[in-house]
Amino acid sequence: MQIDAMLTLLDRPLLAWIADACGLLLLIGYHLSLWRVFRVDPERTHRGRSDRLRRAWVETMRDSANGILAIQTLRNWVMSATLFASTSMLIGLGVMGVAFNGVDLNDLSHALSLAPTSANLVRLKLLLIAAIFFGCFLHFALSLRYYNHTGFLINLPSTYFNESGLASTADTLNRASGHYNRGTRGFLLATPVLFWLIGPDWFLGGTLISLTLLYRFDYRVDPRQSRRNRAATAHTKDPHASPDIDTEKRNQENSIRSPETQPRTKIDVSSPSDRSM
């Protein structure tokens, strides 16, 4: 009986297999590319820039005597992670209940999809959605753990650390933010799987929508702009290199518009009685 059920699941149109394969390859390829960019040029990503700014924030908080401000800021992050963790668990449990009780999407799938989904495959997809939200809950729970550790570390003197107190505290805070980032990413990745309940063609469309949102969520600099910036940096290091025409033109326009290049007129602020004297 189980073999017959497996054969039924595998007996799908070629269009369904192609759409599923394209969606999965797009998701995997995007995240591999993002991982490479984050390792090579982290400033092109929001996460890389945020890691640097959080390290600067930790350094500022450790140098200042106002420890209450640091704890209040960490409390805001803890409250946000707690909200997302609770939401992830509720959604995961709700989807699990729907999967076990059974849901009939046969009519909807046949009406909207070119390759309708069978009832058994719908249950498997619902279990996959539940697994995604349980994974989000795990990431948000770990982010809460590291946020709490950061609250202890940020006010400790450097004598209590075997290494640099700044490096240890910033690394702990960035780990918390990394888990928070992955948990939020899980909410976006659940979108194509929800569309997958209707059919593989909807899964491919949902994947394209999710990747568009993830690109705005991950990258902060246009790749062409980043190349122009690197070319300008290379030109400053090598004066014999060919100049970037666009960069030089923008610099000239900025120099014309900059108020610092214009002569400033001195203003007489003395009163009439002073001038009469």
From TrEMBL:
The keyword Transmembrane applies. InterPro entries: DUF599. Residues 226-277 are annotated as: Disordered. Residues 253-277 have a biased composition (Polar residues). The keyword Lipid metabolism does not apply. Residues 235-252 have a biased composition (Basic and acidic residues). Pfam families: DUF599. Keywords: Membrane, Transmembrane, Transmembrane helix. The chain crosses the membrane at residues 14-35, 81-103, 124-147, 193-217. PANTHER family: DUF599 FAMILY PROTEIN, OS02G0292800 PROTEIN. This is Putative membrane protein.
